[in-house]
Amino acid sequence: MAQRIATPLEFALGTEIIVNTTGRETRVALIEDGRLAEIHIDRGDAESYVGNVYLGRVVRVLPGMQAAFVDIGLERAAFLYAGDIYPEFVDKSDDDIDVDDDPDATIAEAAPRSRPRHGHPPIQDLIKEGQEVLVQVAKDPISTKGARVTTHITLPGRYLVYMPTVNHLGISRRIGRDRERRKLRDFVKKYRPKGAGFIVRTVCAGKPTEALKQDMDYLIEQWETIKKNQGKKKAPIRIHQEDNMVVRLVRDGFTSEVERMVIDTKQIFDEIQNFMSKLMPDFKDRVQLYRGADPVFDTFGVEVELNKSLGQKVWLKSGGYLIIDQAEALTAIDVNSGKFVGSSSLEDTTTQCNLEAVDEIAHQLRLRNIGWIIVLDFIDMERQSNRDRVNKALEKALKKDRSRTNALKISDLGLVEMTRKRVQEDLVQSISQTYHYCGGTGHTRSSTTIVYDILREIQRENARTKNEENIFINANPAVADLMYGAELGSVEDLERDIKKRIVVRAMGHYHLERYEVYSR
Predict the structure, then answer these.
(1) How far apart, in whole angstroms, are the C-alpha atoms of residue 263 and residue 277?
(2) In whole angstroms, what is the distance from residue 39 CA to residue 196 CA?
(3) Contact 218, 157 (CB under 8 A)
(4) Cβ–Cβ under 8 Å, residues 57 and 236
(5) pLDDT, tens digit, for every residue of 273-303?
(6) Helix axis angle, 209-232 relative to 266-279, nearest 10°?
């Protein structure tokens, strides 16, 4: 079958997914109606183990902590709580339970919902030192702490999440119609293996039962493969690896609303095509391979929008603006009227500015992946009816967010306290570092981010000057060291692709973010 080749086109109305790979960095942009809505970045230097299944060996049991250390082959032993062990006496009911369906959340978190209801035996009665145990990583290692693991295995699919060790059926809260819930519940109960459980995800609503059965068969086969490999392997060893970032985003976020997905790397294109052949064959023709000379994010306008997203000040169309101050555990967003003077009363002007700010705030929370505690400081409104309008607008805007949010009502001071679940590093932290030139009060793009900016600029320079033999880089020493060190493989791969020599020069007087790319 011939590949569809994406060509440089303007934004289309609707939803698009754009995938760019530069060296070890992969970036995925979600575009909604021509506007950058989400950006996901994976640089391969901070591997996540969440979702991986390991055959481990218990190295130490701690009765005083009701926990155990399990060797799964990583640098540090993993931590297993007694409550995360699936015992034989687990509650065998199959109640229709409500669950949150957050595709960005750790799927392994779903299993502990099905723990026994009437106590738990001591850990020394459940496992022994030297025993082999099949576990799944629920939380990555942090600092000096090892990974947290569970024996409640969960395998996410397109429409369902399979829980082979617990006899429960969960239905996403976002599937609101009782008739639809009953239909899905009855179908899954009919075909699921005896004693196993499933979570029915939001995307199931309205889908034909054939698609659900295909997903169910795929997950059951995956579990059978895990069990078969378990019998052939010796601990500690990885038995199953969770899908990479791009596949996960396709699995969890590629709906009928996505008009096309454009990928600039043949390897990832083939991987997505293979995945869709198994679970989403009807969407295969929406995936296109990009062959343009310019970087794909340039062609689709993503790079410009991404650069804007780091700014502390965000302008509104009316002339008002937001000030976004991000700290480690709290983010404050201040709404200002700026140049917006309105056309009637001060109260109406204030309300209009706040309503416009609501949509931009919801957009920025998704785009920057801001999480934890958030305080919104709206412009003061005298009338309760206007505060209610802003509250309802905020509630509506946050419904588009796939991450779980919880917002309180506007206080008399014009403040909204809210939380947003975040399961990965926010955008500012992932591509920047503390700005030491101003005593740590701001941020500048990190050395690694600058390296990938340079690699993309090399692609642009190569497209402009086809006949030159060499491309020269002048950069800050820290950036130059990276290009000749950890990122040397990426530089050499690019040299082979463009068939030109890349020469990097360290310039001691250059600011970290300053660089020059030229040919001769």
Answers:
(1) 17
(2) 36
(3) yes
(4) yes
(5) 999 988 888 899 999 999 888 889 988 888 8
(6) 110
- The angle formed by the CA atoms of residues 350, 354 and 355, to the nearest 5 degrees, is 120
Phi and psi, residue 263, nearest 5°: -125, 135
Cα distances (Å, whole numbers) of residue 327 to 41, 306, 309, 375: 20, 20, 16, 12
Helix and strand numbers (H, E) in the chain are: 12, 28
List beta partners, residue 27.
Answer: 20, 41
> Roughly how many angstroms between the first and final C-alpha of the chain, as a whole number?
42
Q: Which H or E element spans position 14?
A: none
pLDDT tens figures, 56-111 = 999 999 998 999 999 999 989 999 999 898 865 334 444 455 555 544 344 444 54
Residue by residue, DSSP assigns 81-112 as EGGGS--TT------EEEE---TTS-GGGGGG
- Pairing status of strand 132-139 against strand 148-150: antiparallel
pTM for the structure as a whole? 0.72
Q: What are phi and psi of 189, to 5 degrees?
A: -60, -35
Distance between CA atoms of 236 and 71, rounded to whole angstroms? Answer: 6
Q: How far is 104 from 84, CA to CA, in rounded Å? A: 21
Helix (H) or strand (E) holding 411: none
